[in-house]
Amino acid sequence: MIALLLSVTEITLAQVIVKGYHYHPTGDFGFVFKPTFSAELGVMGSFIEGRKLRGVVTGTYVKLKPRLNEIPITGVRSDGTGDHILPGTQSFKKYNIAQLLLGFDYAFIRKEKFFVYGGFDLTVGRANVVYTEYVQTYMESSYDGGGVLGGCRFRLGAEYLLNPYFSLLINAQRGGWLLTDPAAINFANDYGLGVKYNLNL
Amino acid sequence: MKKRMIMICTLLIFLNSACKKPLKDVNDYFPVVKTVAAIVQPDGSVLLTGEVESSGKTKDAAIRYVGFCVSTVTEPKMLDRQLIAELSGTKFTATYSGSLFNVDSIYHFRSWGSNRYGYAYGNSIALDSIIAEPVTPPCNLPNNMINIGASQPTAYYDAISGPDTDYSIVATSFNGPSVTFKFATALTTGVFQTTTDPTPTGKQVNVSFYYQFISGALNAGSKVFVKKMNATGFEITICEAPWVYNTSTLYLNTHLITP
């Protein structure tokens, strides 16, 4: 709620940010998908004028590619002769994520031109997923759909004011989100470099 | 300042924790198994030994299943005559029955293992001329003869059928006894043992017969010598095997070759 209020307030003082980042899926998500590059666009407030807290609203889109074209999976079938371990494959054709992030940054260190801050975002979005699954003699299925996602993201970052118009930003972030369909809990880190442009001058 | 440092450190720890950081080589998620040995046993079966070199390089990558497969192609797949083995430490073993093998073919044995991420194969070991050690019965009888003992005359089989899908062989003679051999499993070269149980198990065989008004079955514990001749043909010999008729113990001798 605080973040929302800050964000709405700060939009009037908006400063546009463009950030490129390297996205690293972790855990099981990182087993399946390769790290990739993407960009984040948005608006954010400023730490100048004595403020320690600023709102941030951004949006991003990540297109993930699988590490293996076919992941070797197994299934188990039991019958009168016992268990049978059945070989198969799972193949992701598409895993695209669109996210809207709403949050705030808190400056731990605040100098005239340099700030170090921690941040937190809430995220909502959608994932579009296409995959096929095949287990020999047992099943063959395909999925083409997606679901709503929701989660949060933490961040550690630094900002340096180049001049009254431009700042450089560097961020390390860790996020997790829950996807409704196909059901999954995914985690990822990202490391980004951005530019902020002050529209209000 | 101290408060700031604590907050920064907390965030750094969270960001760096990256629980279950992905492995650089995706193949490291899967098990690494090795087919250590494939040894032909005296009865023609093949004893396989495998070893798990790695269950996968993540902490949660425990082995779920291990086993073997065999085929005449160089890289058999998991479902080719699949055998699931029990893991004992890092080793696992399993035995393929000799009845699966044709002496003229080359067979490739391969181990496999699975964990929560998937599965992987081990190396293949090729074996040719898989054959049991010779089985030599203690008696030398003419082909396709049957004698159930006492004063009954020696006869010769006129028709032999089987082994059937239930592993039974029926040998019939018009002027002598007809004999049914009921094995528990597919026939292979080796020595089987008679049982009075009509549903034998393991290397047991139930041998029953009838001739005119006489019928009977061999006592438990006699040896039945089986030699695999080719893909479908077997030579079976029984020497002086006791059976009880009324209160008398009689001795059966037979020797037959299935078509």
Notes on the protein architecture:
The complex is a heterodimer of chains A (201) and B (259). Chain A is mainly beta and 201 residues long. Chain A contains two helices and nine strands. Chain A has an eight-stranded antiparallel beta barrel. The longest helix of chain A has 10 residues, at 2-11. The model of chain A has no long low-confidence stretch (mean pLDDT 90). Chain B is mainly beta. Chain B has one helix at residues 2-17; strands at residues 32-40, 46-54, 65-71, 83-88, 91-96, 106-115, 118-128, 145-147, 155-156, 159-161, 168-172, 178-183, 190-194, 204-211, 214-217, 223-228, 234-245, 248-257. In chain B, the strands form two sheets. In chain B, strands 8, 9, 10, 11, 12, 13, 14, 15, 16, 17 and 18 form an eleven-stranded mixed sheet that branches. Chain B has a seven-stranded antiparallel sheet with strand order 1-2-5-4-3-6-7, with no helix packed on it. In chain B, β4 (83-88) and β5 form a beta hairpin. Chain B is elongated, with a radius of gyration of 28 Å. The N and C termini of chain B lie far apart (95 Å). Classes of the chains: A mainly beta (201), B mainly beta (259). At the A-B interface, β1, α2, β4, β5 and β7 of A face α1 and β7 of B.
